[in-house]
Amino acid sequence: MADSKRVKEQKAFDETKLGVKGLVDAGITKVPRIFHHPHDNTKITKKYTTPPVIDLTNIHEDPRARKRVVESVRDASETYGFFQIVNHGIPVSILNQMKDGVLSFFEQDNEVKKKFYTREPKPFMYYSNIKLYTAIAATWKDSFLCNMAPIPPKPEDLPIVCREILLKYLNQVKKLGNILFELLSEALGLNPNYLRDYGCADGLYAFGHYYPVCPEPELTLGTIKHSDVVFLTVLLQDHVGGLQILHKDMWIDVPPVDGALVVNIGDFIQLITNDKFKSVQHRVQAKNAEPRVSIASFFGTLNHQSTKTFGPIKKLLSNDNPPKYRETTISEFVHHYATKCADGTSPLKHYRI
């Protein structure tokens, strides 16, 4: 498409404030050109096993159970960069209510929903395609963003339809994050409180995603190939599926598991562990069966400036393992991603020594 025509279509789409769901509700049968993605020649395979499912039962009471979990977390973080957890302490009823809350927000009355549509930083934002005007192509999803920490939102800033469950769920995720950072610290041979004290759990924000039914899923993507520019991600996905990770140069599925949460290593954990733990690229396929919802909770900061720098942890370095990255702030790292990585490339390459 000519640039002028693309920009015109992007603006027309944005100004509806109805997102991709608005296109589907209007009865389109063809995916608009601004959503067309270049063909990915990477193979999709069922050959390799999927990321492991790790059971957190009794990790606080049984030292042997905790040791097994720490070993599993270490292996998954080195090999896949992804794993799923069950018996994590968040009741299944809350998980189900949160999925219903995401669905309810996006399927509520359009005039109510449109009041939250914005691209200006706010405690709660609804929009479609955060990189609508800069990405190679738009993605087949609508999103909301909720900033939870270090500055929690006021209840009145959140939509009534999901206000209560959003606060309840994210408070539970914040507690779970402390446990996960303990396990990751131990997996690195460090004091259990090391990563938390280092600042990895200071920030938390969440994206609720709605992936409408797509008439031509082979032409577009729900989420482009990318890695997460945070420390750690905790994802709640529904039963529809579509999440894939890049493993051994092939796409493999991360199938939905009842009652499970998906955990993945972010770029900042790879940076501070000096490549011991891996932040891997992942994507979400578009589907033509039924809408998909998810909520991804990110341990990192967004729209909160800080001068604190992060670099490879000195306790993990040696003559045989010198630092591979220079120090950076979260703000600088995220800015580089937002302005220089339109194709989903990780900013990590830019910070290599």
From TrEMBL:
Cofactor: Fe cation
Domain of life: Eukaryota
Matches recorded under Gene3D superfamilies: B-lactam Antibiotic, Isopenicillin N Synthase, Chain
Gene Ontology molecular functions: dioxygenase activity; metal ion binding
Keyword line: Iron, Metal-binding, Oxidoreductase
One Pfam match: 2OG-FeII_Oxy
Domain Fe2OG dioxygenase as annotated: residue spans: 202-301
PANTHER family named in the record: AMINOCYCLOPROPANECARBOXYLATE OXIDASE, OXIDOREDUCTASE, 2OG-FE II OXYGENASE FAMILY PROTEIN
Family, similarity comment: Belongs to the iron/ascorbate-dependent oxidoreductase family.
This protein's name: Fe2OG dioxygenase domain-containing protein
